[in-house]
Amino acid sequence: MTRIPSAINLHKASKTLSLTYGPDEVFHLPAEFLRVHSPSAEVQGHGKPILQVGKLGVGLAKVEAAGQYALKLTFDDGHDSGLFTWDYLYQLALRQEQLWADYLEQLRAAGKSRDPAESVVRLML
């Protein structure tokens, strides 16, 4: 059964998206977390996800409904492709801690950083 949030709030100052499913089920998803887990082809590749680097500090510029089944998120780094279906958002919320730990481990293993300044420096070397 698809879980649809009863409330969706964009908090630009803290760069988070809050999803409320009930009085005891509220999730706060950081924009950076959503950006690196975007369902877009740019991030997911074609069956082989592409590690996103340098996304520390990215924010959400806009949140729009995409029909009755998803949200379209526009990030302040210009990324706006990929629709976050209700099911995908709920899975991200439920698995946030593990998905974030996995992402940080992938960055470490690849010798990459969340910091965009470090990504630019490494490219210039």
Automatic annotation (TrEMBL):
Keywords: Iron, Metal-binding. InterPro entries: GBBH-like_N, GBBH-like_N_sf. This is DUF971 domain-containing protein. It comes from the Bacteria. Residues 8-90 form the Gamma-butyrobetaine hydroxylase-like N-terminal domain. One of its GO terms (molecular function) is metal ion binding. Pfam families: GBBH-like_N.
